[in-house]
Amino acid sequence: MSSTVQKMGFLCLLLCLYPVLQAAGQKTDARTDTVVLSEILLSGNKKTEDFVILREMDLQVGDTLLLGELETIVQLDQNRIYNSNLFEEVSCTIEQISAGEARVLVQVVERWYTFLLPIFELSDRNFNEWWVTYDHDLRRTEYGLRFYQYNVRGHDEVLSATIQFGFTKNLSFSYRFPNLGKRKQWTITPGVARILNSNIPYTTTENQLAFYKHDSYVRKRWAATFNVDNRLDLHRTAKFEISYFQNEIGDTIAQMNPDYFLNGDTKQQYLFAKFLYARDFRDIVNYPLKGSLMRISVSRYGLGLFKDVNFTSFTFNYSKYFPIAKRTYGLANFKAKLSLPEVQPYFNQKALGYGGNHLRGYEYYVIDGQRFLMLRSSIRQEIFYRKIKNPFPIGGKIANIPLSIYLKGFAESAYVQDDYYQENGQLANRWISSTGIGLDFVTFYDSVWTLEYSRNREGESGIFVHFLMNYDSTRE
User: Fold this and answer.
1) pTM metric for this prediction
2) Of 63, 130, 157, 365, which residue is most buried, by most CB within 10 angstroms?
3) What digits encode the pLDDT tens for the residues 453-462?
4) Does the domain spanning 17-110 belong to CATH 3.90.1170.50?
5) Using the 8-state DSSP alphabet, how is residue 26 labeled?
6) In whole angstroms, what is the distance from residue 359 CA to residue 369 CA?
């Protein structure tokens, strides 16, 4: 009996090892068979210059490649071309010309590049805060026009102009100049903005923003920005930003919260500098399923010319995306921020609940502090994918509308340390956490919206809607 069990166990072991041994044999062939890439053929790029596509590719004409690795490299190149956000569809295929020679065919469908879009946005931090806390008050919305001209001259340049009214008045302009320098690795983006508000949050009470409204403007802001990006290689980027900010608030705001600009000041001006290093191996940037991203940044508020603001912040973000099974994917995210010194203007210091720093289940709260860390994880299962024919294509573009739906579960935790504003709430200086399930809807131009049910450590639960819940957002 024992001998029979041993034989059956040995047979099971062989059956389990068979795929591994077979793959090993295939890898051996791949190590010995090579192919020379004789040509890269591009088609479909009616406006986009060839070099804009070729710069996204690791493959180059004349490369000698292992046959077994060529398909993987081609797939990575296809993802990078798609991540340029210039094309609706990208297809890279291998065509073997002879036993030792091959070429790659790159076919693209260009996006629509000119947009004059009406603005209708919420002034609040998320949909649920606007819908529940402020009773979906239409006076807390923003409206106007936003003009985008993408891929100017076919060089991936971007012109952006905004005229916005409503809760926040905003007049802004920026222009992105990429592909500068001999290696075309530099990008510069100057911009300017004027922002006016007659209703602003002046303090935090019990982890919720308290607003003050007046008939006249109670906060006025000027911003002038200049960004310089250096694309070191296909995966690494170094970015430098220098900006000038001039802010002014009404006397009543300074009286109600002397810490708004500190010392009861009503005016604030400062120079801002930021350095960011990114190492990006994600497959699809807007909704990654595989790969990783690491970002490290140092921001300096106040460079000595003005004394209104004087602090430094350090931010680290790492995300890992990995397949678990067929159409099942996992992700893990870690983010941390440290700001020094402890005493900072209320207007400038932000921790959780702002920008891209959200913890699910705490949508109704903000947590002020000088330091925080977040641990977030999720498992996603693709349950639906289909390309739906668009009955109203625009100039031949957006002929099909892709739709993917992912069922997901998530667990998240965070800790915010607040040494100065801790009387404003009870969620700082202790661990908070949440779990939940949801659906992610991914559609054309990589837009994503989510429907989620979550429950937090405080015992609160609810259904939440998000339109930009990105683990890798750089918004502060």
Assistant:
1) 0.86
2) 365
3) 999 999 999 9
4) no
5) H
6) 15
